Structure formats: C-alpha cells, structure tokens
Amino acid sequence: GAVVSQHPSRVICKSGTSVKIECRSLDFQATTMFWYRQFPKQSLMLMATSNEGSKATYEQGVEKDKFLINHASLTLSTLTVTSAHPEDSSFYICSVEAPAGWGTRETQYFGPGTRLLVL
Amino acid sequence: AQTVTQSQPEMSVQEAETVTLSCTYDTSESDYYLFWYKQPPSRQMILVIRQEAYKQQNATENRFSVNFQKAAKSFSLKISDSQLGDAAMYFCAYSPGGGGATNKLIFGTGTLLAVQP
To answer: Contacts of residue B101 in chain A, CB cutoff 8 Å?
Structure first.
C-alpha cells in the first residue's frame, strides 16, 4: 500500500497552546486528504476533508476555527489544534486517496496517527 | 445518510481456524465501495480488502475473502487459517466513491478479534 507519514507521532502540550500535525503523502500527489479523530476504543470519525489550494470542508459539529487545516502542496496537509484543551486529547489520523492509475482507486491509505495529550 | 453497523464488538478464534466478521450498511446509492480495515495495537490502519459494489464477484486477498450481498446490504469478512498476527480491531467502511472530496469513508464501530493459540 501507499506510504503516508505523520509527524509528530505523539505530542504532549499544556492547555491553551496550539499544536500542528503534519501529514505527508510519500508515494503520490494528493489533491484530497482526510483528517479523522479516534477516541479510545472507538471508531474513526471524519473531521474534515483537506483540499489542495482551497478551503477545507468540515464535518458537522467540527469547529473550523479550532481545527485549522492547510493543504499547501500536493503532498502535505497540516492540522493545527488551536488553544488545545484536555477534551481535545485524542488520536488524530490522516488519510490520502489513491489517484486514478494507482491500481486501487477510490481507496484511502492512512498515516500512522498522532497521539495528542493536552494537560 | 449512510450508516455502517458491526454487531459483533468482540470475536475470538482458534489459531488455524476460520472466523467471519459481520457488517451491514445502509445506503440509497447503487454504486459505492466497501472496505475492511485492520487496526492492530500500533493503531496503524491497514487495508485488508475492498469491494466495488458494481462487481458481483466477491473480493479475495489470500486468506481474506468477503461475502458481499448487495440486496441484503451485507458485507462480511472471512478470515481463513487464522494467525496470531490477525489479532486486531477490524473496521468495516463504506465510501460513496466519486473521487476527491466526495469519497469520504464512513466506519462501523469495529470488531475486536482475538486469536487463541
């Protein structure tokens, strides 16, 4: 499968600070990336769709001003959790959609995830 | 709205035996994609198998196969010759396809599979 990297793998921060998480597509260019959040022992919930060169599309209930997404290039999307609070502590995962011609189109490949702990 | 249901929170299987994980979904679309992803303790999501709804033939990948029943909206995963490394959380997922931003995944709640030696 395709390789997607995330950095950092884990981060601990104080309440009120901002944290940036990077998602990189290493095998192909991606106009669309997705950001998910996973609480312990729960499923993945889509937060937003990151579109290269345009604004992200947020799912209902996700605060766009709190979770800033920037898709500045075809291989990099960033998620910034602004003014983080303990309830934002979670596992954040990005995914990249395989392009046409990759062999498994319409399939998403996931990064290894970022564990965020807000104290 | 589309939904995905996994009714088995936990399953257990003996090593070398066969186990089937259930998944049902609800959609009004006729063309879509279904997936099974595996999430081991590392929490890395790994694609196990995918099925295109317009294909009647069930997808297979080595020891993994699906039973896709489009009319019943059922998409079960069969793992044959279970191995210790198969122990993980398994998520069933639906995608409307169409590429790009419309291709968002909707996940079920997951089934935790334990493999007994």
So the answer is: 32, 49, 51, 57
pLDDT tens, residue by residue, A15-50: 999 999 999 999 888 888 999 999 988 999 999 998
Amino acid at B11: M
- Calculate the CA A88 to chain-centre distance: 14
- For residue A3, what are its two tokens? 């390789």
Cα–Cα dist A58/A56, whole Å: 6
Q: Indicate the average pLDDT of chain A.
A: 91
A36 - beta bridge partners? A46, A93
Across B23-32, average pLDDT:
92
pLDDT for B100 equals 61
At B90 the pLDDT is 98
Task: Please report where in the chains the tokens 């399953």 appear, as a residue.
Answer: B11
Half-sphere exposure of B112 (CA within 13 A, CB side): 7
Contact B95, B35 (CB under 8 A): yes
| Residues in chain A whose Cβ is within 8 Å of chain B | 1, 31-32, 34, 38, 42-46, 49, 51, 57, 91, 93, 95, 97, 100, 104-110, 112-113
Interface test with B, best of A29, A38, A77, A106 (most B CBs within 10 A): A106
Q: Count other C-beta atoms under 10 Å from residue B93's C-beta.
A: 24
